[in-house]
Specification:
heterodimer, A: mainly alpha, 0% strand, globular, B: mainly alpha, 9 helices, 2 strands
Chain lengths: 254, 208
């Protein structure tokens, strides 16, 4: 029960409260570039959700077994090489390089797989698949997972299921945001927007208002946590990245 | 090849206004929005991006003869990732508070489109000198863009500039400006302003 409730909280936190696009500003490029039509936006959202899940699976595995301080596999290899050495090996300096490598290669693999087995899907994704490599949302998910896996170990460390929940629902949140945005932009085509604001300008302003709306979800997780546990939550906010600069300290529950 | 390309000076000037990474090319939006709630984080971010962009451009330019077309994006990102790791460790060692505040946005420099775009468009085709000048120009342009957004957001949002109070104490802080929605709205309106100036200039050039 505890596991399930924490998963639900992570999911809601990633998809609604701390929406990747509207709260953390990651994945803005496709958010502005590919949000002209709803079907395209939905395709992009699905592609990102798919890749983000795979990248999260791989990056959790790499972080847990190899990269984090005192990781099992690294420790085993280290003992094999240096039988009488003491102390733990910390490979976390390689984190970023490994992540970007994992993301680039998983995008490549997904692209090859989809092209071979689902040609029609491949056609509809078109140019977006390779573009996903440079989508900040995916690296951001990997970094969040890294932060929670190697956070001084112990009970607070995330397991694979938690990492996957964050990544998948982060992708769902991205899809939600980009589809809403595309819907608004389709209507916007019929409006008389001042010439200098046309295109990116008005999109950003609309995104700001949308982000304001999503701020209404703040505190939902805490209320839910209390409802589930019926006890004062020890760590009531499973929202990742409480230290994110976008969120000033004075922000409190309404 | 460098003889028929633009000179280093042209590259340098191009980056500041005519090809400003944020306002003209709409690149690097993620850090632009995320770290501009104050001048200090914005300038730290601009410095980190400048360092990474400069080093990555130089390295890319040095190895441009060895690049294989289908692997070049991967090589660029790995080069950038190396320098971002250096920058990240440096920030964590010397300005720990700022590094904490910037959080995941320092590693996210790796996928900052500005740097990949510069490596692809300029550094992989030009000499080292041109690539370096281009990196410096683009960095200054990026820093100016960040500074403009951060100024608006910090002054209106907390009444300070570089943590120095500039508005009277009676100023009601527009808290929304330092929250995520303020970032989107500020950038949207500033972008509109930049376009408006550009269009007005083009019109004047056409008529006059």
């Amino acid at each position: 029960m505890d596991t399930i409730s924490s998963l639900i909280l992570i999911a809601i936190g990633a998809a609604l409260i701390n929406n990747f696009v509207l709260h953390y500003f990651v994945g803005i490029c496709p958010f502005i570039g590919v949000s002209r039509r709803v079907d395209m936006a939905f395709g992009m959202g699905c592609a990102v959700t798919f890749v983000i899940s795979i990248a999260a699976l791989l990056s959790w595995t790499f972080t847990y077994f190899i990269l984090q301080p005192g990781a099992p596999l690294t420790a085993w290899v280290w003992r094999l090489l240096q039988p009488d050495a003491t102390g733990t090996v910390d490979l976390s300096i390689l984190n970023y390089i490994v992540y970007i490598f994992v993301i680039a290669s998983s995008v490549q693999l997904v692209e090859m797989y989809v092209r071979k087995f689902f040609p029609s899907l491949y056609k509809s994704f078109g140019v977006y698949l390779p573009l996903i490599t440079t989508n900040c949302a995916i690296l951001f998910a990997c970094l969040e997972i890294m932060k929670h896996v190697s956070a001084d170990g112990g009970a607070a460390a995330w397991g694979l299921h938690e990492a996957m929940a964050l990544a998948f629902f982060g992708g769902v949140g991205f899809t939600l945001a980009i589809v809403i945005m595309a819907g608004i932009r389709e209507e916007l085509d019929h409006c008389d927007v001042p010439a200098p604001l046309r295109g990116a300008g008005i999109t950003l302003v609309v995104a700001g208002i949308l982000s304001l709306a999503f701020m209404g979800f703040t505190g939902v997780d805490r209320g839910l946590a209390e409802a589930i546990r019926r006890s004062p939550p020890a760590a009531g906010s499973p929202e990742p990245g409480a230290s994110a600069p976008a969120k000033p300290a004075q922000r409190s529950r309404p | 090849m460098p003889s028929d390309g633009p000179t280093p000076l042209e590259r340098f000037i191009n980056g500041i206004l005519p090809e400003n990474p944020v306002y003209r090319q709409l690149l690097g939006m993620c850090p632009t929005l995320a770290v501009t709630n104050g001048m200090k984080p914005a300038m730290t971010m601009a410095a980190a991006v400048a360092f990474v962009l400069f080093c990555a451009n130089i390295i890319t330019s040095l190895i441009r003869g060895l690049l294989k077309p289908h692997l070049r994006i991967l090589v660029f990102t790995l080069t950038i990732a190396t320098f971002v790791t250096i920058a990240d460790r440096f920030l964590a060692a010397y300005v720990y508070e700022m590094s904490k505040q910037l959080g995941p946005y320092v590693p996210l420099i790796i996928v900052n489109c500005v740097i990949i775009c510069r490596c692809e468009v300029c550094a992989s085709k030009q000499s080292v000198l041109t690539a370096g000048a281009d990196a410096i120009g683009q960095s200054i342009g990026f820093a100016l863009a960040l500074a403009s957004i951060a100024t608006v957001r910090e002054v209106l949002g907390s009444g300070t500039w570089f943590a120095l109070p500039v508005l009277p104490a009676a100023w009601p802080d527009w808290v929304i400006m330092v929250l995520p929605p303020g970032a989107f709205i500020t950038l949207g309106l500033l972008l509109g302003g930049a376009n408006w100036i550009g269009q007005a200039r083009a019109r004047r050039a056409a008529t006059g």
